[in-house]
Fold each of these.
Amino acid sequence: MRSFVSAVLACAAATLLRAAPVPATGPVSVVTFPIPGHVESAQKGHFVELTLAMGEAAGLALDLKVQPPSRSIGEFLEGRRMVLFPGLDVFFDAAHPRVRTRYSFNCKKDYIYTIKGRPAYATLAALAGRHVGLTQGYPYGPEVTRRKDIHYETALSDEANVQKLLKGRIDAFIVETSAGTRAFQSQDVLDQMQFDDDKPVSQQDVYWAFQNTDEGRALANKFDLALEALLARSDFYQRFDASVILPRGCKP
């Protein structure tokens, strides 16, 4: 029965994909930025490979560029790129509306990292009065940035924050799991890493963002239908890592 339902979903999604109108303006301009493991190049990375597969499923030619974060986000906000991923709500404001896919493809969770043998903190409230490291350019959620009772200090990299932790210059630092683990590992102190995997201090849905135009809305619909078609395939989680690709985003 399950395979029958999957087949019906795939057929329906494929039919809708063919029917959805998108202006014929050549390759779709897509921009992203480097994220270890997720965006390694224009061909490699969890997020990149899923996006390319969706373009293929939707019958779209994608012109995918990998650029520094500020440049990629800036070019999208200026209307020079049609699609940006990963998209996060913190990138946009009322002056820069965007269209997004109904589906997400990841949930960005930030945690409080400390050193074993020192006090551990599981909530932002517990950090009141503490010196806490943040990483420059990192898209922290409002739960983190609006706190006025925490003494935030910015470092140029996650690795720099690990070093500040080891030297006792900060009490903790906040970052997502993959980046935090990689930073401790790169400093050869993974065995000293401490955080509570059950208690993220902020969560943000990760999605594809499009220009707020008729073409952008049509493309967002195409992307959603393409993901539905891919999800209906029995080999979806053989092709894509189930611990990374989360179509429900931060929803349980």
Note: The domain at 2-106+204-239 is CATH 3.40.190.10 (D-Maltodextrin-Binding Protein; domain 2).
Amino acid sequence: MAEFHFYGSGEDRQEILACLFELGFRAIPNLTYEHPQAREFARADGDLHQTIEINRILFLAGPYSKRSPYFVRLPSGRYEGRYQIDINRGGPLISLALPGSVHEGGLVKLTPGSLFHPRLYWDDDNALSTRPPELLRDYYGRLRKAISKIAVPQKPLGIRITKNALGRYEMGSAEILVDGKWLSKGRQPAKRT
């Protein structure tokens, strides 16, 4: 699976969304649905921002998506009888988790966002697993490159982070979750080996 992690604040989400829409992606919220159909967004509007407040994970469709999203009916639990998208079937789709940013105790708690696609997708027509198409890998690379311009490497921390989020961290008004530990200014992770 191709995967890319980055940090940002809630204010940075708009810039990330603008990048993906400029590149021609359509965003599908990762929610549970009453029926096996989901709304696709071609631009950031109030409805999309409301869904992001519920769940910051979006599935991204594009020219590489040859099928509709594949829905699975949930058999039990709180959402029994509702539907959820299976990223390993249909589409294919790319997954984008926007960076987390929660205000707590006078601090902003920053958790990583991620961009990924499965290493294999299920091809229903041929009843076999298949690699993602070259076009999907190309679009994944384009979005990763665009996000890399926003979330730049921060070597002492060993992460990619937006200037806005790094500024909050440097001022002591934010903590960053890295490898399961909350870091604040002055406390940095041990070197990764």
Note: The two ends are 22 Å apart (CA to CA).
Amino acid sequence: MSIERSYGIAKRYQMNKICMSLLGCLAGLSQTSQAQHPHLEIVGEARAKQVFVIRIVGAEKPIAFCERLNVAIPTDSGLEDAPRPVQVEKWDEHRHKWFLDTSNLPDLAVAFSSVSILPGTHKDFLLRVESSGNYRFILRYVEGEQQQPCPELRGHKHKIESSIMLAKSSWEMPIPVEVWCGGDDGLTLTLRDAMENAFKSSPDFQLNSGKKPGTLVVTIPSNVKWKQIGGRTQILYSVEFTSIQDQKLGSSTGSCWDDKVASCALKILKDAKMPSAKIR
């Protein structure tokens, strides 16, 4: 092996050692930095209209912060007390700004209490927001175990924040719907088409096919009735709401002029919202 080649190999070996050493230092600095400062964690899955957990993790020094009392959130077993330590803000896509989210916050009798977290410990809090979107949670705190007055936290104040995109919950997802028609005359088929367009345009429903579980079936059982009034044709309709398993969920009846069939379809769409809640 030539002297030049040996020198090149030795040089690359030294460079590799230096790079590995630097990477180790950077990793150590990252871990040390995280240990020096408290941080926020979302525990488990977080979705809109569902209770989730936000965790405040302590650092190498004790911290104190304020929690907002008199906050209650709806759960499966009813309202539950859920003191809130963080400020919740939601991003407005139209205004391109963060706005305070006041979901489940009381309008009156606002009260605060001071909370401390010791090094190496954490504290969990329950949260719930009522719509999907981009949120951030802001915690303001001071270092030390001393109990600080709330909500001002007089003295030197620190701030940490955590952002998350909350997806829609099952309660926000559109309901699959199928429109069935037992009639075949022109007015009935016109009403069917208007109903399909109405459900297709609604954010609450998703026009579907294939008899999938959880689908709302809207049926025109027979040809619609009609009558002539002053040279105009009035449609008299009746539709039924059922599940795929043929469970009866309700009905809708009404009337409209034959050149205003969309108004009948909108009435049926409105009447479908309560039956749809029964099959979620």
Note: Residues 2-11, 17-34 have pLDDT under 50 and may be disordered.
